């Protein structure tokens, strides 16, 4: 079983490889200006969105964290 | 077959002379009410407050079949306490819990029920799902706990909601194998137990529990604890 770290590195490596292919214009797809910009910043976007979604999830879980009575 | 099950409760203690009579009384009460066979193994690490003397008195009250004493000379790790405790356990199931009343014995019958339901190798008490929860935690504590758990879930995908909890039921041979394969300490030790359990293909059931924090504000969440946790998390992330 591949350790999680290497699973992540593999996934990240694949993502970066595809991204680089687009950035270095190795891919034969026509993109509009907007699309190209999006592709260019997609790694940053991915991290940013992940961070935002994570923050929302964690804060939600904190606010719904059950407070138990001490009695017992 | 069910009648032949016996549950050994491991209680590592350090300076718990006041809590020990209470937790033993609660354990006896809930076990007697539920009818399950049990023993309580007190593993005292040379407590300066004479916890062991209190344990001996409790042994006189409840009998040496129910209260088993396996003390040690000084404060050693939790992992070795479990190993030490298992050696003398006569049950086929082991329950581990805190002796400071942060875990309530009333959940034990629920653990046992859950185990029987799915013949689980491990039943883990969780604070994070169902009506599990905590008492006495402020916002900061909850944030750190949920945040750490979230990161752990993302990185390790463990298949259990609460990795750092220490209120669990194990089949004896499962606990034996897991403890011998873990190398971490502190919070990470409990995490590693669950991760290894998954690695070995053991089944894990969960029971919501409430955790009443007794020592928060002292040493439970200092900077060094957090660093230890992160180091341990990284170790598990890179090796499992």
Automatic annotation (TrEMBL), chain A:
Domain of life: Eukaryota
TM region(s), chain numbering: 6-25, 37-60
Major site of localization recorded for this protein: endoplasmic reticulum
Protein's membrane topology: Multi-pass membrane protein
Keyword Transmembrane assigned: yes
One GO CC annotation: endoplasmic reticulum membrane
UniProt pathway annotation: Protein modification; protein glycosylation
Keyword annotations: Endoplasmic reticulum, Membrane, Transmembrane, Transmembrane helix
InterPro entries the UniProt entry points to: DPM3
Compartmental location: Endoplasmic reticulum membrane
Keyword Membrane belongs to the record: yes
Pfam family, one: DPM3
Family to which the UniProt record says this protein belongs: Belongs to the DPM3 family.
Function of the protein: Stabilizer subunit of the dolichol-phosphate mannose (DPM) synthase complex; tethers catalytic subunit to the ER.
Subunit structure: Component of the dolichol-phosphate mannose (DPM) synthase complex.
Protein name per UniProt: Dolichol-phosphate mannosyltransferase subunit 3
Gene source species: Magallana gigas
